[in-house]
């Protein structure tokens, strides 16, 4: 039967019918919601590193367009970079942009003082000369390396799987 009353539905859930996990009483939920709203209002808003910068590079312009969305969690981006390190070895990586925004100061990248470069702590890192490969999950993506389709990334929020194979 379809319950006609919202209050009846609440009582059913509070009693544990068809419930999985912890059930909060209305007072507990409202207290946690008020606390979360207070924390969100008190959290300082980080300013965008790309604001007010004259960006001539297309790559930096594309990063600047996606910066706010990645900082707020509205979008999630994976960056692929292939470059040469200081030893002239070719390296590449898939980078979780939102995670890097929280761990790095991007003002040095947007100002042109430093280049965004692959690290062995990124989602996936590969040194083409030494055949060294590493992969690490991030707060936003789970790395699926042992798959017949190749390297896959599973978004932890919407659970969609991203196949980075260009074919």
UniProtKB/TrEMBL annotation:
Species annotation: Charadrius vociferus
Cellular compartments per GO CC: cytoplasm; nucleus
Keywords for the protein's UniProt record, in alphabetical order: Cytoplasm, Nucleus
Described function: May be involved in spermatogenesis.
Name of the protein: Cilia- and flagella-associated protein 299
Subcellular location: Cytoplasm; Nucleus
Tree of life domain: Eukaryota
Matching PANTHER family: CILIA- AND FLAGELLA-ASSOCIATED PROTEIN 299 (PTHR33588)
InterPro entries: DUF4464 (IPR027887)
Pfam families tied to this protein: DUF4464
């Amino acid at each position: 039967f379809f319950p006609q009353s919202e209050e009846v539905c609440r009582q059913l859930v509070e009693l544990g019918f068809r419930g999985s996990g912890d059930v909060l009483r209305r007072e507990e939920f409202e207290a946690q919601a008020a606390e979360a709203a207070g924390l969100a209002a008190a959290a300082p808003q980080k300013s965008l590193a790309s604001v007010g910068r004259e960006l001539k590079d297309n790559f930096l312009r594309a990063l600047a367009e996606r910066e706010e969305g990645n900082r707020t969690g509205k979008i999630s981006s994976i960056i692929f970079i292939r470059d040469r390190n200081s030893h002239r070895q070719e390296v590449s990586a898939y980078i979780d942009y939102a995670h890097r925004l929280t761990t790095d100061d991007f003002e040095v990248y947007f100002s042109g003082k430093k280049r965004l470069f692959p690290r062995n702590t990124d989602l996936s890192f590969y040194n083409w000369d030494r055949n060294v490969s590493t992969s690490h999950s991030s707060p936003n993506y789970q790395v699926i390396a042992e798959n017949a389709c190749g390297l896959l990334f599973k978004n932890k929020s919407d659970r969609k799987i991203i196949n980075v194979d260009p074919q």
